[in-house]
């Protein structure tokens, strides 16, 4: 068995029931993805449109591709025909564009709203107030070709466990609040995407239902 297969089986075996694993394969070659695929993994996450398109065209068609990164509106059209879940919607404008491209492809695209909770300035996403304002206006509910399936966040990149825990807790509270207020009868609103290689066990403890794990499965990424 390949090293990647062993690692992914180990990660999976330790996940509680109800938590979905997204294997984050960005910057890793097709062979590595196939190792994970042959170990049974079907959900992969990427964050560069061009790279994702190339992989989608050459790899097995039963892979569910997730888009994790900041998405530019002019690039949606390239992934709209096949994308399973877009994790990081952070504006109404983006959601409207995704809806438009989904309609053109005669499909519905599942999306998560990204909430900015980390202390770092550079991360994208709605602030707590912005996301509340966004949902309260209900403009989103008129978009028939997208579904808001939950929330996504990235915690602060810090060794301060208490800080990270607090951030996950806050997002879980918002998730529950939104579920109650806007999505009570919507079964599809059930995804809380939080946790990466270094913090996913903590995220799960705080209520994550979807973890995005790259390095721990595929090793360090080589950026070139
Ligand atoms: C790259 C990436 C991950 C995976 O990070 P690892 O530390 O390699 O597990 C998770 N989420 C997002 C949004 C990413 O861009």
Largest sheet: 8 strands, parallel
Low-confidence stretches: none
Rg of Cα set = 17 Å
The percentage helix is 40-55%
Percent of residues in beta strands: 15-25%
C-alpha end-to-end distance: 29 Å
Overall geometry: globular
Strand order of the largest sheet: 7-6-5-4-3-2-1-8
What is the averaged pLDDT score? 96
Bound small molecules, deduplicated: pyridoxal-5'-phosphate
SS-based class: alpha/beta
Let me know the number of strands: 8
Q: How many DSSP H or I helices? A: 9
Description of the molecule:
It is a single chain. The chain has 224 residues and is an alpha/beta fold. Helix content is 40%, strand content 19%. It is built from 9 helices and 8 strands. Strands 7-6-5-4-3-2-1-8 form an 8-stranded parallel beta sheet. The radius of gyration is 17 Å and the shape is globular. The model has no long low-confidence stretch (mean pLDDT 96). Pyridoxal-5'-phosphate binds at residues 24, 26, 47, 68-69, 154, 196-198, 212-216.
